[in-house]
Amino acid sequence: MATHGNNEVDDKGEGGTREHRHAVERRAEPGAVSPLWAGPGEGLIVPGYRRDHEKVDPPGDFPAYRGTISRHPKRPLVPIPDMLTEVTGPLLGEDRVGESDHDLTVDAAGGEAQGQKMLLHGRVLDGDGRPIRNTLVEIWQANAAGRYWHAWDNHPAPLDPHFEGVGRCMTDDQGRYRFITIRPGSYPWGNHFNAWRPAHIHFSLFGRAFTQRLVTQMYFPGDPMFDHDPIFNSVREAADRARLIANFDWEATTPEWALGYRFDIVLRGRESTPFEEQDS
User: Which of 51, 110, 164, 185 is least crowded, fewest Cβ atoms below 10 Å from its Cβ?
Assistant: First the structure.
């Protein structure tokens, strides 16, 4: 995965000369939503996005997590500038989301999933605290017994015929999202002797632009597996690990039906939620 900054490799490219690109970045407002017209002969001002501190994300090679040995980049990442493509797309609208896609507990035939129901909600913000509106939020997870609906998952736990474990929704004008789902179970994963993953839910967000793309995991408070999980502990700072843990939300709990959890997500900026490393 390439990082975003000033490209010092090529003097010329899609964005014009290197000097012009640097001038564009000096005039850009960090975190702005769309490119600005600077006037005749000036072209577009491409708003840049702040780069995360180098220790926010997990290292690409974390020996305790054996999968990183073969999957992390072997060469230094090449910084590239934020060009028009990176700051204006993708455009993923409400037409991609079905009316009940946010509810993972009921399937198309009306069958009801087994397990502890939960209302999962939160806000998606940028690094300056502004809501990110009308952006796609996707989740996927194991069922209550700790098994995914996936051909490669051979964990000897029961499949739930009414739970596929995938959902998506759009944020509203305040950046809020909401899912109805089941609290997932822990499962063994073979990384080391007696390795078990803490209960977690995967998140995918696109933000306003490709430069805000985020794939991460949400965990539950008080999980006894935290101290034994190399994926969770690959996030270097304790404060960053804490931001991966949802808060139990009594106010969101529905009596006699579902518990409530809140998980706010910040894209970029000092308070950003730690990213998973993405293959490229």
Answer: 110
Q: What is the pLDDT of residues 32-43, one digit of tens each?
A: 344 454 555 555
**Catalytic site residue from 200, 208, 243, 268:** 200
Burial class (CB in 10 A: 0-12, 13-18, 19+), 12: exposed
The reply to whether 20 belongs to the active site is no
CA-CA distances (angstroms) from residue 142 to 39, 67, 119, 214, 225? 52, 20, 16, 20, 16
Residue 243 annotated in active site: no
Instruction: Give the predicted TM-score (pTM) of the model.
Output: 0.79
pLDDT tens-place string over residues 157-196: 999 999 999 999 999 999 999 999 999 999 999 999 999 9
**Rounded distance between C-alpha atoms, residue 272 and residue 275, angstroms:** 8
- Dihedral sign for Cα atoms in the order 112, 251, 200, 2: positive
Q: Is 148 a catalytic residue?
A: yes
Candidate list 49, 65, 177, 187, residue with the active-site label: 187
**Has 27 been annotated as catalytic?**
no
Pick the catalytic residue: 21, 168, 197, 268?
Answer: 197
DSSP state string for 18-81: HHHHHHHHHHPPTT-SS-EE--TTT-EE----PPPPTTTSPPS--TTSTTHHHHS-SS----B-
In degrees, to the nearest 5, what angle opens at C-alpha 53 toward C-alphas 49 and 55? 145
Domains and CATH numbers, the chain: 12-88 (no CATH), 94-267 (2.60.130.10)
3-class DSSP state for residue 265? strand
Catalytic residue among 49, 65, 148, 177: 148
Distance in angstroms (rounded) separating the CA atoms of residues 228 and 224:
8
Check 66, 133, 202, 228 and give the catalytic one: 202
